[in-house]
User: Which sequence fits this backbone?
């Protein structure tokens, strides 16, 4: 008991008292103080800091956030964006992983599909927004599609790279020991590619958040009729509406919400990824 | 010397039921790329790996040793010639690439344990793939063989969690689980320090005495070659073919005390010049292995 308690407290002190921890705390505190002082510079020092004085102070943003988390419409926006991120992300995984694997294992298929893929890949997802609105029947689908594109290319590239990088000796060893082609796919190619799939997914979900917000702004900003107020359309709409309505604290509060959501998604995927690739964990 | 012949017969029958796993390399040529413009790696190479013995192939880096081993294993084709395993033609006229199979298992130069499988999953991989035993039986056998090789307690670790010397032993146990006729070892101890190496050599000999599987062992370390081999084949620099073949008549079982014997030094002296000469040629030609 005592030993266990000591071990736990030891771990805690190890983290809390670690140099990195304190450097982080000091850096964030300094940043917040600078921000607060900058944005209140006119009131406090009688002159305006350039740029920072235009930004609402962290305490004001905090108040706005405190208000927002009590409003169902904010949660509704967060939910809608999250839903779109998940739709786009899962569609990208579902299509991207098999496609990447097929491109990696079949020369013929690679020869056919890679040129098309490489022409489409550099097109920024946001450039797809207008076309997407035209082609897809609903606005919801067009946003989900653009979100999908954000993660899709990253996932495919990672899968191809990962599968290609598998050491040829693993295939040779597996063949010698009597593996069929299917065994090799399932027991060598899949697990061998898994670490790259995890990387692709973690990076991809971050891009997805970046894309969904912008897609919501662009598509919603263009068609005022379908906006339906801040409640209707996700965090992108929410920020855009706050801007139109002149509520600067809400803009920053919305931005921070996206940051937190993106971080949480990446962290969750990293966690799942670690569980799925236990052989990579450095103990 | 009044040993009962019956006892002797039965002992040898237990230790070596049938001597198998002999490989005959017959006038083998391997050219990478086109026949006229390609790279000649193996040039009319002929020698034998006798069944139930350790045959060591020594040659400078980039001379074509791995190329030869890959041809036996069936990882790539030969250009001409033939290779036999006992009486079966592995590759030859009309079938230039051998079919890889569990009768010839390779232990690779830098190791090829699957990093995503635990050590015991690696060891049971062969029997499970071949469907020769149910998983539970394979697990039991693997545990027993690992314990036998001094590998108790790491069954459920991943290869990335153990030292490279231990990894090499796991890989040899994984190979043996397939009941191969011959083990093909491609510079397995190359990356190890000399102390670990000496431990690994004795461990390999112990495994060999227990299993009497034929071994084809590649190295560029002459001392290692003479210490382990019944027979040492010294290769020329690329294109490779035997330059000198020696029967090492130091009796088995051997241990490290052999290194200080007069006979061992004689073998070293007899061969070191030949190896050195080829090494200089290889160096001058700027040979690189893949
Ligand atoms: N797949 C390949 N394609 C072309 N050349 C190769 C290939 N593999 C090996 N070589 C060349 O063949 C020669 C022999 O290589 P290798 O058999 O690996 O040498 P060793 O194992 O004796 O060090 C080297 O010159 C090497 O560069
Ligand atoms: Mg080699």
Assistant:
């Amino acid at each position: 008991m005592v030993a266990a308690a000591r071990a736990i407290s030891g771990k805690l002190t190890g983290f809390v008292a670690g140099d990195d921890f304190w450097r982080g705390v000091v850096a964030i505190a300094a940043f917040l103080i600078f921000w607060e002082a900058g944005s209140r510079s006119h009131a406090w020092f009688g002159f305006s800091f350039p740029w920072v004085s235009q930004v609402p102070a962290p305490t004001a943003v905090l108040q706005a956030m405190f208000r927002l988390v009590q409003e169902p419409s904010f949660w509704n926006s967060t939910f809608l964006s999250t839903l779109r991120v998940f739709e786009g992300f899962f569609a990208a995984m579902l299509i991207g992983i098999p496609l990447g694997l097929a491109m990696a294992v079949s020369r013929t298929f690679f020869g056919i599909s890679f040129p098309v893929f490489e022409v489409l890949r550099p097109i920024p997802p946001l450039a797809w927004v207008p076309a997407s609105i035209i082609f897809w029947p609903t606005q919801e689908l067009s946003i989900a599609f653009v979100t999908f594109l954000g993660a899709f290319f990253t996932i495919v590239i990672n899968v191809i790279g990962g599968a290609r990088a598998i050491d040829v000796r693993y295939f040779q060893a597996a063949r010698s020991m009597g593996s069929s082609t299917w065994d090799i796919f399932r027991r060598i190619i899949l697990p061998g590619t898994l670490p790259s799939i995890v990387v692709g997914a973690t990076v991809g979900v971050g891009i997805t958040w970046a894309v969904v917000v912008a897609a919501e702004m662009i598509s919603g900003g263009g068609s005022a009729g379908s906006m339906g107020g801040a409640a209707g359309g996700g965090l992108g709409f929410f920020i855009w509406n706050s801007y139109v309505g002149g509520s600067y604290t809400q803009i920053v509060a919305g931005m921070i919400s996206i940051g937190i959501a993106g971080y949480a998604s990446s962290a969750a995927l990293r966690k799942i990824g670690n569980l799925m690739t236990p052989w990579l964990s450095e103990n | 010397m009044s040993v009962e012949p019956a006892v002797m017969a039965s002992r040898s029958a237990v230790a070596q039921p049938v001597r198998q796993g002999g490989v005959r390399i017959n006038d083998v040529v391997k050219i990478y790329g086109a026949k006229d413009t390609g790279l000649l790696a193996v040039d009319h190479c002929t020698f034998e790996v006798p069944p139930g013995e350790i045959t060591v192939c020594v040659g400078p880096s980039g001379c074509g040793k791995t190329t030869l081993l890959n041809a036996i294993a069936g990882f790539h084709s030969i250009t001409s010639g033939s290779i036999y395993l006992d009486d079966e033609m592995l590759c030859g006229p009309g079938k230039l690439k051998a079919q890889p199979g569990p009768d010839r298992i390779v232990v690779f130069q830098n190791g090829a344990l699957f990093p995503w499988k635990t050590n015991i999953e690696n060891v049971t991989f062969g029997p499970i793939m071949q469907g020769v035993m149910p998983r539970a039986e394979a697990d039991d056998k693997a545990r027993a063989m690992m314990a036998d090789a001094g590998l108790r307690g790491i069954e459920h670790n991943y290869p990335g969690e153990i030292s490279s010397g231990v990894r090499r032993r796991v890989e040899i146990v994984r190979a043996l689980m397939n009941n191969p006729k011959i083990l093909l070892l491609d510079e397995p101890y190359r990356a190890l320090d000399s102390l670990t190496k000496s431990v690994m050599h004795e461990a390999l000999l112990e495994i060999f005495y227990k299993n009497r599987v034929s071994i084809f062992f590649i190295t560029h370390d002459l001392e290692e070659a003479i210490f382990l081999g019944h027979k040492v084949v010294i290769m020329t620099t690329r294109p490779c073919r035997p330059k000198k073949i020696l029967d090492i008549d130091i009796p088995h079982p051997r241990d490290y005390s052999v290194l200080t014997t007069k006979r061992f030094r004689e073998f070293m002296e007899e061969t070191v010049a030949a190896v050195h000469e080829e090494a200089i040629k290889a160096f001058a030609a700027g040979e690189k292995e893949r």
Remarks:
- The first helix of chain A runs from residue 2 to 16.
- Chain A touches chain B through 22 residues (CB under 8 Å).
- Residues 88 and 148 of chain A are 4 Å apart (CA to CA).
